[in-house]
Structure formats: structure tokens, C-alpha cells
Amino acid sequence: MRWGDLLFLALVIATLLNSMILNAVSHASGADRADCLYLLALLDLALNFAVESGPSGEGFLAPLVNISVPGEFKGLHVEAYSAILNYYALLKETNLSLANTISRAYRVLSILSSVRDYTNKLVKCSHNLDSARTLSALINLKLNSLEEKLYELIEASYQASATGMYYTELREGAYDPGELVRVYTRRDSSIVAVEIYTLPDFVKLIEVSSSSCNDTYCLFEVATPVASYIEQRDLTKTLNNGVLTMALALRLTNGSYVLARSIKVRYETPTIQLNLPSSVKRGEQLKVLILSDGFYYSELYISGALIERAPLRPGKNEITIDPSQYRYKPGLNAVKVCVSATTKTLSHCVSGAFSVEPILPPVNTILVSPAIAWYGHFTLVITNEGHTSVQVVVSSSFTHKELRLEGGQVAQFNIFGGFLPFQGQNLRVVVTDTSGEYDTLLLEREIFVVNVPCILATILVATTLSTVASKYERALLLQLARVWERERLRLSGVEIRARYALRSYPRGLGSHVASLYYDLLERLKVRPPLPHETLREHFKNSFWLLVRGQKLKELLWRMLLAAEMDMYSSRGADQTEVSEVYRGVLEVAGEK
Amino acid sequence: MLVLALGVLISLTIILSMPSAKQHSVLNSSPTGLSRAYNVLEASPVHSINELASLSASSAVLISARTNYSGNLNSLFEFARNGGVIIAYGSPSFVSELVSSLGLRGGLLGRVRDAVFNIGDMNYILANASSCSDLVLGYAYTLQGDLGDIFARSSEYSYVDLNDNGYYDLNEPIGSYPLGLDIRLGNGRVIILFAETLLENAVFDYNLEAIRCLTGGRHVIIDQTEIARDPLELIRLLVYGRKESLTYVVILLIVGLGMVAYIARRA
């Protein structure tokens, strides 16, 4: 290629590339990136409107529900904003009954937790964690304000239902379970019963229809539900930090209800601590120490099985498990202690674990590594030092043997060392106690075996090969070397005569010009052509790179052509030219 | 030499055959170009601002989108004073200088992004216009100061990226910010929009109705003076911009004949 052509091509390619690159430039899109801090700021603004502006803030909130957010946030985003919109919807409702208002308010309270979940998720993905936490704290404050507003609405609804027919003792904070709530009703009112309902589902828990009356008032005494009753009714999941909120309702003679107030009851969780030994031997007693803060009825489980029932008193309680009660498994065992619910406390479980060490049979093994197999086998000696009989199984790469060993007996196992002079074997010994007093012993070792007969056999074979068959072996190695050098020889058997038989051939078919050519090759220290090579092949393959200098190569080429003429042409070679070329090569070679 | 000359001619032909890649070029069919506006609005390009003097300003609307401030806008303002309408937008530096040249005091505050009112990308936001329909502005920004009559504003959910890091930071204000001005100048008006993209192919369809309302039937002229500073772009505009295909055909013929002669000589 000429320079002009290259320049032309370069110019066209550069132009094409330039045009393509320019066309590919564009702004980076911000569509897929989630700016979580921005979303947090919008949520904070929306809650601000909800808390400060009341119903008029709904206009700011509504467009935010369906904005484009990345897929992973979409569900939570819609849930959170829908929860706030539910608050607005509640504020706008005018035709709800008081019971429905209270119920709706509690429902909104429960779904506002999705706002907190969404906030936490956005905090984690914000590019500035400190700013995100600041906004998160502000959002939580506003959520608390919103929740307080909802509680105020609930209280107001309760108070709105007051008609002067009754009076209840006011209580700050929460009641204890089983505590009496006193409701005084006017004697002339139509109140016939006092009932307690769950919130927000309004499921009846307790009903009291008997009262003691004087001339003016009747007294209803309602006991708040105890912890065991709450568990029985499966209400523990509605507890908020151990507090259950219920509604106190008054039933009238016509079957309708008046909601008196909401009551809170606090249920405690017992404090139980479990102390276990880290390990015991199989067959030993297990001492479990339980620290309790009260009187409870407990159940102890090991690996899921009920082992013991015991009462607990405040302070330390010790339970001893005998091996006959439960057969420990070697290894890790899980322990669980559960206490039942009482009047004031809920049920509770604590867990722990301990490990069981096996009792191994008293067996002694003697094995040396590396093991020398003098006669092709090496020895393993096992002694049963106990009083019970054991079953011994010995296995390796080539051996599998079993033997029953009585107490005090010694056994010797001869294990085959393999077929190689030096070898690694994985030896496995399993000792099983037939009486069951002990656990199974498993020994695994990697043994290095020196197989003496194999070594001797190898030496013998090597010696035989190197002495008796040396000539043939050497010829074989030479042939293999030639194959490695990429010479195409057919190795049908060992053609050791090929080299010798064709020795005369490189000198050509009686051509003295060819002899001169070969002479020059020798002087230039170039290897002669091989029997299967033509002169031209030899010149091209190994000659071209070895000989430096264009003039020398040209002269040698002329000599080659002359040799060919001399060998194959009836006219023969030009002797004058041959002499001239011969002298020329010598002169050039001599100048080097 | 012949080879080199042929190479130059072929390169030129390739360049001219390919669409422009310059932002705001009427021959650029990528999202950053104005090819759709040029075709749909049947607009005429101007390569030099002095050409405005020869036009009937009262029946024309000049759309000027620039990335750099050229320094001499007298001809532009004269066009407006004579009854023309100018719709100008582009880089913050160009718009800021334009606003200053009109005697207003306004400095760049920052990029405006909106998560609620956008077209799927927070950088392409909806601007509420005081007249005509709302606009979609790409890579909008806002100015602060004594700006006069506000023509367009962002939604109350938008924020100003003060440090232009692409993210909202806690100190960045959220709210509605000016995105455009409407300034009466003599018998005409200058509508300045604080955005880098208004009529480009990426948002043209969104803004077509608003632009038809703003142009009000006037002839649309697209300012290509900035584009025409590039000689290759100028040639492209001359060849395609005036819709004269004869020059193009002649050039192709010359190049084609030259190639044939070259190949024949080589053979």
C-alpha cells in the first residue's frame, strides 16, 4: 500500500468516526435514579400540611400518590400516602356513627405504620445519611402529632357519647390485668350491662350484667381481662408495647350501646434467665439453672421433647435431668424453658443449648506413618483395653477387614500397601461397642506407604531396560526426539536403519555440484537437508533465517539451482558459474 | 495530491450526507436538535443576525436557542422593538446575559427538578405558563432577583439544586420558582425561558400546542447564527437549509466522477 492510499483511507475513516461520535453525544438521563432524600423531603412536607393545615392540606398530598418512583419503592410509597389520605378522608366524614368514627380512627392509626416503614427504606438509600436521619426524625415527630390528633378524635368521640347516665372512675395510664373498673350508672337509666370490646374489631370480651344498687346509683364492677385470657383469645398480636386498648360499652334495655370510654391494660412479660453447662458427658446428669422474677409454672424441653414440668419461684431454680429421663444425642442439644401465662404476665420461652461429649471405647491403635511395607503389607495393631467386646472394621483403598475383639484382646491387621513404590492411603478404623456402653469411635488417617517390593521391581526393570535393551531404547528416544522437532517420520515400529540407510543420499546422485553445495552448507554451519527434504524445502525452512545477508542468500540460491541442473538436467550446470558462485560465497563468508 | 483531494471531497460528502450533531441545529434529528420544529412549523433559518433587519418583524417570531452568549444583541432587540416576538432560551450563561441586557437584575440560582410534574425524567419538568398552555422544559433552572413579569413557574413540588450535584440536599429549597419571563419591548415582546430544551425533538410534541399559541400564526424563524459559525455546519445549512438540492447533486457528481477517474487510473 502506498502512502497516498493510506492517507486517503485514514482521512475517510477519521471523517466517518468523527461524524458517528458527534451523533452519539447526548445528556445523561435522570429518569432511573432514585433521589431518596428528595422523596423524604416531600413526605415531610406532606405530613407538615396534614398536621398544620388540616383538611386543606389534602390538595398538596393528592398528586404525590402516583408520582414516578423506582419499582422497589412503588408499593410502600402508595401505601404511605394512602394512609395519610385516609386520615383526610376521616376528617371529612360527617355521617359516621361514633362507633364507626372510633373504628376508622383506630384503623388509620394502624396503617400509619406504613409511613414509618417507607421512611426507613428511603433513609437507607439516601445519598446523605445525616440529612436523611434528620428528615426521618422530623417525619416521626409529625407522625406522632398525627397519631395524637387521632387519639384526641377518639377521646372526643367517647366524650360525645356521654349522656350523664353514667360515671366511671378516671384512671391515668393503664390498668393491671384483673383490676376492677367501676362504672356507676343512674338507677333510672336504661343501662343493663357493661361490656368490654376489642379495638378496632369490636369483638366482645367480657360482659357484666349484675350490679349492686342503692337508691340513686347502680355499681357495675368489670374485671379487665387477665393475661391467660388474652392469650386464649389470641389477642397478643394486637398488643402495643404490652398494652391492649379496649372499649368499655354500656348496653341499654333497647339493645343499643353507648360507648363509655377506652381503657388500656398493660400485660407484663416474665423475666426468665436460663443457665446451662456448656457440655456434659453422655450418661452424666444435666443441671439446668433458671432465674425467675416471679411464680410461674414451667415446662422444660430438650430437642423439642417435653422432659420436665416444674413450678418456678422468684430467684434461682434448679432442675436436674437424669440420663434415664432423656437420652442425649452426642453433639449440640437445644434446651427450651417455657412459662405459662398468669393473671398479669404473658407466657414466655427462653432457649439455650449444651453439647454432649461421647464416651469412647478404651481402644488403643498402633500405626506408624510413613508405613514401610517390607513384603507389600503394613501392620496395624489394635488393643481392646476395656472389659466389653467391640466390633472393629478396618478399611483402606485396597483392604476391608472386620473383627470382633473381646475385652483385653490384641489384633494385628495386615493391610496391602498398593502397587506403587510410594503411595498415600486413607485408612479408616471404626470401633463399635456391642454392649452400648460406649459411643462409636471413628479414626481416619492419611498413611504414606513405602512399598519395598515395588521399589525393587522398578529398579530391576530400569536396569534391564538400560543394559539389555539400551541400543533399541536409545533409538526409540531419538525417534521420539525427532517427532518432537516436527519431523514427519512414521514410527511404525522402530526404524533405526532409516538414518543409516539414507546417509549417502544427502550427497546427491553423484553430482559434484551438489557436493559443492553441501560443502558450502558445512562451511556456513548450516545443517544438511534431511532425507525427506528437497533442496528447495531445506532452503526455505531452515536456511532463510539462519543465513544473514541478501547477497549470500542470492549466491547460495544460484548454487542450489546449479546443483539441481546438474542432478536433473541433461545439459548439466554451467561450470563457470558454479566456480564463480563458489568463490563468491567463500569471499562473503570470509568477510563476516 | 489527487488522492488527497479526492479524500477531502469524499469526507465533505460524508459530512454533508450525515445529519448535524450540533445542539439547536435545525438539521439535527437527534433529541437535542430542532429538526421537527423546523419541519412542522415550516420555519426558516437565519444564519446571520443582520438578516433580521430585512424581515417584516410584525409578522414573524424568532426562536433563538443558544449555548453561548455572542455579545451583540442589538439586532435582536431591534427586531422585537419593531413588533417582532422573540422566544429565547438556552444555556444559563446566555439567558443570564440576555436578562441583564434587558435591564433586569437576575442571577442564576440553580437547576430546577420536579419529581411530581415531569415526563418521566426529573430533568424534563412541567412549567405552568401564565398564558397559553403549560410547557415542558428540559434542564430548567431558575434565576433570582428583580425579574419583572413572570411568564412560567415550576410546581410547588420542585426543588432548586443549588450545588448542581444531581441530588436533593437538605438545604435546597422546595417550592414554585420562576422559569420564564415575558418582557414587553417596544411594539414586540421577548419571552425568555430558563431552560436548555424547549423546542428540541425530545420535547417538541409536548410543547407544540403552546408554541402555536405563542407564535399566533406568525412566520417562524429559527436563529442559527451560533450554528453557522462552524463552517461545515454553514455548508450543511446552505445545502439543506434552503432546500436546494441542486448544489448537493452537483457536489455528488463531481465526487463520483473523480472516484471513477481515480479507480480507472489505478487499474
Please, could you describe this protein's structure?
The complex is a heterodimer of chains A (592) and B (267). Chain A is built from 15 helices and 24 strands. Chain A is α+β, with helices and mostly antiparallel strands. In chain B, helix 1 runs antiparallel to helix 7. With 267 residues, chain B is α/β, with parallel strands linked by helices. In chain B, helix 3 (74-81) links the parallel strand 2 and strand 3 (85-90). In chain B, the strands form 2 sheets. Chain B has a 9-stranded mixed β-sheet. Classes of the chains: A alpha+beta (592), B alpha/beta (267).
Brief sketch in words of this structure:
The complex is a heterodimer of chains A (592) and B (267). Chain A has 592 residues and is an alpha+beta fold. In chain A, 38% of the residues lie in helices and 28% in strands.
Core attributes:
heterodimer, A: 592 residues, alpha+beta, five-stranded mixed beta sheet, 15 helices, 24 strands, B: 267 residues, alpha/beta, nine-stranded mixed beta sheet, three-stranded antiparallel beta sheet, 7 helices, 12 strands, globular
Strand-helix topology:
The complex is a heterodimer of chains A (592) and B (267).
Chain A: H1 3-24, H2 36-52, H3 58-61, H4 71-92, H5 98-111, H6 113-125, H7 129-160, E1 166-168, E2 180-186, E3 191-198, E4 204-208, E5 212-213, E6 217-223, H8 227-232, E7 243-252, E8 257-266, E9 272-275, E10 279-281, E11 286-292, E12 296-302, E13 305-312, E14 315-321, E15 331-339, E16 348-357, E17 363-366, E18 371-373, E19 377-384, E20 390-395, E21 400-405, E22 410-416, E23 422-433, E24 441-451, H9 452-467, H10 470-484, H11 497-501, H12 512-523, H13 535-543, H14 550-568, H15 575-591
Parallel strand pairs in A: 10-16, 18-24
Antiparallel strand pairs in A: 1-2, 2-6, 3-4, 3-7, 5-6, 7-8, 9-11, 11-14, 12-13, 12-15, 15-16, 17-19, 19-22, 20-21, 20-23, 23-24
Helix pairs in contact in A: 2-6, 2-7, 4-5, 4-6, 5-7, 6-7, 12-14, 12-15, 14-15
Chain B: H1 2-17, H2 35-40, E1 44-46, E2 60-66, H3 74-81, E3 85-90, H4 92-101, E4 105-113, E5 124-129, E6 135-138, E7 141-146, E8 150-153, E9 159-161, E10 178-185, E11 188-193, H5 204-215, E12 219-223, H6 231-241, H7 245-266
Parallel strand pairs in B: 1-12, 2-3, 2-12, 3-11
Antiparallel strand pairs in B: 4-7, 4-9, 5-6, 5-8, 8-10, 10-11
